[in-house]
Amino acid sequence: MKKMKKRRLMILFLTFVMAACLFLASCGGPEPVPEEDLIELTLEELAEFDGQDGRPAYIAVDGAIYDVTNSTRWRNGKHNGYTAGNDLTEEIKTISPHGVSKLKTVPMIGRLKE
Question: pTM for the full model?
């Protein structure tokens, strides 16, 4: 009797874990911004979005602009010695231990203008 009860509890637990994993997999990041709503900024304009004094914090990587304002890793527009308002393509792709993978967790909101 005890074995059946343990087995049922184990099946219930595994079902719960699998459902949680499926739910989390479907929550793979922020909703994409529609193409017509994407902003375009020059590097000079991007510099204004440094996360200081209540301003949003934006970074650029590979020509895309990401909003890191609500990221706990980018408090006041700063993260590991880097500052928002900049094109950080080189730093993220060559120095960052996680590369571009963490960009999936923040919304891509625009593109850099030439």
Answer: 0.74
Task: Kindly calculate the radius of gyration of the chain based on its CA atoms and give it in whole angstroms.
Answer: 20
Q: What is the span of the domain harbouring residue 40? A: 35-112
Residue whose C-alpha is closest to residue 106's, from 88, 48, 20, 36: 88
Per-residue model confidence as pLDDT tens digits over 77-92? 999 999 999 999 999 9
Q: Both 54 and 84 in a single domain?
A: yes
Using an 8 Å Cβ cutoff, are 88 and 103 in contact? no
Return the percentage of the chain with pLDDT > 90, whole number: 62
Backbone angles phi, psi at 86, to 5 degrees: -130, 160
Query: What is the number of domains present in the chain?
Result: 2
CATH number for 89: 3.10.120.10
Question: What is the spatial distance between Cα 75 and Cα 52, in angstroms, rounded to a whole number?
Answer: 9
How many whole angstroms separate alpha carbon 9 and alpha carbon 79?
Answer: 44
CA distances from 98 to 24, 39, 73 (A): 20, 26, 13
